[in-house]
Structures are given as C-alpha cells and as structure tokens.
Automatic annotation (TrEMBL):
InterPro entries: DNA-bd_dom_put_sf, HTH_17, SinI_DNA-bd. Transmembrane segments: none annotated. It comes from Saccharopolyspora antimicrobica. Residues 6-53 form the Helix-turn-helix domain. This is AlpA family transcriptional regulator. NCBIfam families: excise. One of its GO terms (molecular function) is DNA binding.
Amino acid sequence: MERQTYTVDEVAGALGVSRSVAYEQVREGAIPARRLGKRWIIPKARFDAWLAGEGA
C-alpha cells in the first residue's frame, strides 16, 4: 500500500524551504495539514492540489 501522506520534512524539500519555515506554514494553515497526535501529517492529494493552485 502506498503512503497517502507527506511529512513536514518531505514538504520542505519539495518546496525548497527550510524545515522551520515549513513547520511555520503548517501551523499557520498556509500548507494543508492535520495533527495526528504530536505529529503533523500532510495529505498527498490535498498538498498536490494546493501546490497545483487548485485550492487547499
């Protein structure tokens, strides 16, 4: 089964920003993400649509 989420580190790499900037954007809601316990997860479909400019 293929993973359906990205980590914040993976998103930071994809966007070419630092880990701290990615976490800041996730916390502010600029990057579509959800809390799962203490971790942030970024659903692949939502992130890919957001990145393509199709909304969050």
